[in-house]
Structure prediction request, 239 residues.
Amino acid sequence: MSVYFQELDYQPTPIGMLSLRRRRELALGRDVFEIKLGEQFLMSSLFTVSEIALARLGLAELTGQGLEVVVGGLGLGHTAQAVLESEAVGALVVVELFEPVIAWHREGLVPLGEALSADPRCRIVQGDFFALAASADGFDPDAPGRQFDAILLDIDHSPEFLLDPANARFYAPEGLRAMAAHLRPGGVFGLWSNEVPDEGFTERLATVFTDARAEPVTFHNPLQHCDMTQTVYLARKPR
Prediction:
């Protein structure tokens, strides 16, 4: 195995083969960690600006201390880490579908794994975010019906480009309304998208939430020498 490329793990899942790999990006002089599902790239440590923005923009909408937050999708952990950077956060529940991803963090195979696992405010729950969002019990198996101050989601590529076609139900008004039941009054929903803002989805959010908007997040791609724009959608549950 070349020192410039290493496949750290490769595991089957119900929706495809999941792999974690590390490669040396010679042009930048740094190691890059990547997660793939089949031939799709789920996450790269080279591009984390918008994943971090999801946490920071979502939390910026809230006031007070001891905030309780859900992050849907663990990945390489950048959204979760950005949530925990806030001293206002008292508890974080991260919902991750794939058990191997959780194991990568606990075993220290990914750079942020040890820090997330060691933070007493952070608990990782293995489960299907979309099924839990639609359920009456919600996201915390130890406290059915628990409500949160913020729910931040980074799983699908966008509301239209899904990892699993079954996820489409979540992005309809009925699915969003079911998820909103797990937010406290005035709580915030944030969604990451790999695409530029979609006015149609913002309008859909507005049928369930107040203050629905799309925040473009633009950053430089050092490999293609150009700027990229992704999106963080934000919306508030009525008080």
The chain has a mean pLDDT of 95. The longest strand covers residues 210-221.
